[in-house]
Amino acid sequence: MTTEDIYRQIKASQNGQDWHHKNCFGCGPENKRGLHASFPFHEPSGEVRFDWTIEKDFEGAPGYAHGGALATLLDEAQGVLCFHLGHFVMTDQLYMRYYKACPLGEELEVRCWVTMVRRRRLYTKGTVHLKKTGELLLSSKARWYDMPDRVFSRMFQGTAFPVDIILKVLEENQKRGKEIRKRLKKEKLRSE
Q1: CB atoms < 10 A from the CB of 79, how many?
Q2: Alpha helices, H only, the chain
Q3: DSSP 3-state assignment of 116?
Q4: Which of 10, 61, 66, 128 has the fewest CB atoms inside 10 Å of its own CB, making it the most exposed?
């Protein structure tokens, strides 16, 4: 297969595992101690949305999730969201609000969305609800630093993912992000 053929096949990312390395603590399938979440992109809303069950390995108080594991889940979900929209980011600030203890072995609904983009900063929010009741268990706000291509290239040089291919995926993600923003803006204007 030629490089041209590879570039023709590049599409916008659909989940975190499309571009992350296999040992990533958040989504890596080969990380024995990781969360193993896929962080799928929900194109109609422009969000990351998924159901997830926290396992006993991430226990804090008996029968309940450790707050750090939940913070990791929302940090990763919001960061992957930024990638799905065409930004390679690094966490600048992460704020967590815990409303109620999160039980182990229960299905959760995770949802993350972008609230604002300013210069080299992105702002996101995320929530975790108990699926069977809809009860809000925790929420998060984050600020992200949009990394320059030169820093990104240096970080991924020599890894399993060629830098030029990841940059092409980011380009496709940016195109999709612009289309989604236009569509959502039109829908909002129509509803007003």
Answers
A1: 26
A2: 3-9, 67-84, 149-156, 163-191
A3: strand
A4: 61
Which residues are registered as beta bridge partners of 116? 123
Residue whose entry in the numeric block shows the structure tokens 């291919």: 165
Q: What is the mean pLDDT of residues 140-168?
A: 84
**Amino acid (1-letter code) at residue 147:** M
DSSP 3-state of 58: helix
Closest CA to 125 of 75, 175, 159: 75
- Residue 136 in tokens: 């809000």
Residue 185's alpha-carbon distances to 106, 189, 191, in angstroms, are: 36, 6, 10
Tokens of 51: 């159901």
Residue 35 — φ and ψ, nearest 5°? -80, -30
For the purposes of burial, counting CB atoms within 10 Å of the CB of 21, is it exposed (0-12), middle (13-18) or buried (19 or more)?
middle
pTM (two decimals)? 0.90
Q: What pLDDT score was predicted for residue 17?
A: 74
Query: CA 7, CA 9: separation in Å to the nearest integer?
Result: 5
